[in-house]
């Protein structure tokens, strides 16, 4: 099979995306081939792209031996049974002296021996090339003294905690030593992930162990060669360290933007600069996590798929060939279109995941440049297939233009039609997922919730409902049922409160002097952009707003459109309680990407300037690099 498609590729056949739309087959009356005797194999041992049809995978030579390194260790009694754990409670992890469910004590000799035996039992039945001993997902691990003693003191800055890689490798080595005696050729794989992403400092890897590097807590916008992105830069020594420590390495790249997958995300610079580095550092398996998003990541997919077969290809030549052959007469404007987005990703000093940095990255100027290029491409098309391909890009851009219109309407206080436009965006996303199902585009999958018509919500639509729609729905409610009495508050003075003594220092008081504090606009600047992506704790925000006259007896509320974590509000130095949908009061609000209202009736001064102080506390790892306020704040009153 590989030989057939190697021959077809040499004859100029290309498959850039699933379906006939992605085929570029030369038209020739005759075919001539010189006599040759060629032997070879793909440049990687394994190549896996998640979402594509079998024909596309076969033609692009996806497959080979990919390591099975997913979450497995504590799941479904894979290697150790519940009965064994009940008999040996010391095998269970601990936290603050109490059992930690679904975690093992990696330092325990009995547990190590039992896992080794469990792996052997599985292999005796399955005869697998590789098997995972990677821990289950999550960031809580055993904190017993024996486990802590296995750590080296190496700090993981993205997690704001010590790396536990040496602890895990010590455990993995013991398991590998047991397993390799009976199954010497089996690969024991594991994700290098969260606080065990960094390479080991002390431990030497057993030859059977294979890390699957999964840099989930690092910036996804930039390349690891970018001198202005400390987060992405940090991946390079991780790759180089594992490349030296392990006999074989797999790289689990994330080929979508984190928790917002509808944005055009070309990955051209990132793939062009990172893939050669990966293949020079013992990466033998290319195993990205992908989605059905050929609409948004097409150039990056082309690079990744072709170079996984032949790592010696030149990225610039691969891209030039792709643009020329795929877009034909529309090649030049489509180059400009994709480059406009690639530049926006790489040039903005913004590192947060999801949509929260889009206001800073995708300015009106960026979208204007992309729209002008797309319009020129549509006008340049000369054949039906060129128009099909460009129209796919145009449909993607139209969705993103509406997506950003919703963001700016929220930021600038145009609340009336937010819910209507959000419904239109969501419905169109579902329709596009259905329309372009053969192209594996617009993130339609079988496992999302379904519309009444049985259509996939799409992954992008599901994220949209989680992270965007609550603000839009509540904003439209306020515009309909209340009177907005302030402009959106976006220029805040801000101060980190690492020692949690801001209240003692009077930071909530109306007369506190905050002139030396830095300023921020939470609509366009995330904690990651401030260099606080690894910070977990409180941040204070302070601003003043002039309110109009308010009719007597009317309640007044502070509306916080979206937050990451806890939120507590003070108006003119007086605490304003949170009011939930049932009218119940609480000291503070707590939630992620939810809109909150706070009763300021007793504290506001009508027809006067009012001081607003907010303390936002990021309380948990969500991998997005956000915290505190995630949107505008405004005041509204009963009609």
Please summarize what this structure is.
The protein has 639 residues and is α+β, with helices and mostly antiparallel strands.
Topology of this structure?
Elements: H1 2-10, E1 14-15, E2 23-24, E3 46-47, H2 54-59, E4 63-64, H3 82-87, E5 92-95, E6 98-104, H4 109-126, E7 130-132, H5 145-148, E8 155-156, E9 161-162, H6 165-180, E10 187-192, E11 209-213, H7 230-233, H8 235-245, E12 249-251, H9 268-279, E13 283-286, H10 294-309, H11 315-327, H12 331-347, H13 358-361, H14 364-380, H15 384-411, H16 418-435, H17 459-467, H18 469-481, E14 482-484, E15 492-496, E16 518-520, E17 538-546, E18 556-560, E19 563-571, E20 574-576, E21 578-579, E22 585-586, E23 589-592, E24 596-599, E25 609-617, E26 628-629, E27 633-638
Parallel strand pairs: 3-13, 7-10, 10-11, 11-12, 12-13
Antiparallel strand pairs: 1-2, 3-4, 5-6, 8-9, 14-27, 15-16, 15-17, 17-25, 18-24, 18-27, 19-20, 19-23, 19-25, 19-26, 21-22, 21-24
Helix pairs in contact: 4-6, 9-10, 10-11, 11-12, 12-14, 14-15, 15-16
Structure description:
The chain is α+β, with helices and mostly antiparallel strands. The strands form six sheets. Strands 15, 16, 17, 19, 20, 23, 25 and 26 form an eight-stranded antiparallel β-sheet that branches. A seven-stranded mixed β-sheet has the order 4-3-13-12-11-10-7. Helix 10 crosses helix 11 and helix 15 packs antiparallel against helix 16. The termini are far apart.
